[in-house]
Here is the input.
Amino acid sequence: MSPYFGGSLSVWGSVLTVFMLALSCGYLIGGRLSEGQPELKTYAFFFIVAAVASLPIVFFADGIMRPIFMAIEDPRYGSLIASVFLFFMPTTILGMISPYSIRLLVEHEDHSGKIAGQLFFVSTFGSALGTLGTAFYFVLWFDVNEILSGTMMALMIVGVAIFTLDVTARRPQ
Amino acid sequence: MKQILILLCGIVLLTPLYAQTIHEERSVYRDITVTERFGRRCLLFNVHRGDRNQTCIFTDGSSRLVFDYTKMSFAGLLLKPDPKRVLIAGLGGGTIPLVLSELFPSASIDVIEIDESVARVANEFFFFEETDLMRVHINDARVFIKRAALKEEKYDYIVLDAFSGDYIPEHMLTQEFLEEVKQVLTPDGVVVANTFSTSRFYDHESVTYQRVFGELYNFKLPTSGNRIILTQLEPLPDIGLLTERAVQLAPQLGKYGIPFLSYPEKLSSQVDWDMSRRVLTDQYSPSNLLRDN
Here is the structure.
């Protein structure tokens, strides 16, 4: 983002705002979709679609940011709009995973609090590790795009793994 | 002589510790402190973290410059002795633009500063005033330069001096940024970059400048932890021409305490960095991690 909009505080603010907004929408949608008959296949689909929706960040970032940079003089709004185009979709889909996971994991409402707690633990702890790893080491070892591609690859692998698991688990029936 | 030097160094080092604070403010980016002691007024960023002085001036009304690196930056005049359109990234206390506007009253000067508070403090405590020809733009320098390139604006004297404390914003160290700088540079213009002379970062930065501009002059002094990179699109002039220009300009620069005549022989176009280091790009610029290694 900084090549087009700089590294000012407002640019950081824009990126974080869009992430938070997207996550909150994702939580809502994911929770909604988990009603009725939740399926592992749908769950796997979230991961795969999120990976695909992240592709523009790696491949079309310049193509998306340049016209926005040209059209909007103020870097605050420029970075806000650019963040929406780049990050809103994939982050929303990723946000859908948490509530859906809870629905899949909870077998009895007595345990729902515990399961939710464990899930929040895993996801937030993972975010902490990811942030630390990126800020301290990955930026030293890899290109930004390599880090992003790695993350997408991981999403894709997890998605496909869940999908295969689901298919093989069904076969004996 | 040596003792006097040691004493002077001692004073320089201790001044910030015992200086009297005359102004403190917290901007969105940093803590700004203005101190005064031993006849110097200094601008400091994030003083609690132990960062260095950004700018100091003498309070006795003298025009002499305090820091070596500020003086050294005027070596850019050896490559471009008559700047008409100046671009300065990073205002600080405003010393460099002030001196340039005094030396070249008809030159237009654009100063880009990201932090509004710094601009206010420069004005209030460091005698920096905007004029019709000298303007401060509150913006990120990378964004400003990109827009200037789109408008096909050209500058013949570009000073890159954007620091936040001891930290250079990483998007202003990359190959892509320097390409943008190149686009706004006139064929006979000069780029003057104030940066560090130590750490692994030195190699990466030098390799990056070299990739974009080809040849460069490196200007280091044993008394300063900074180094100045001087470069231009045309082939670099030889030492003879530099000396000639130094002789012409030295009288005007004397009152600022700039030992201009001694500069030409200290510029080096020799490669003294590890050429195998990776070029910094928008994709790879862990510059401030590299500084610790």
Notes: Chain B has one domain: 68-290.
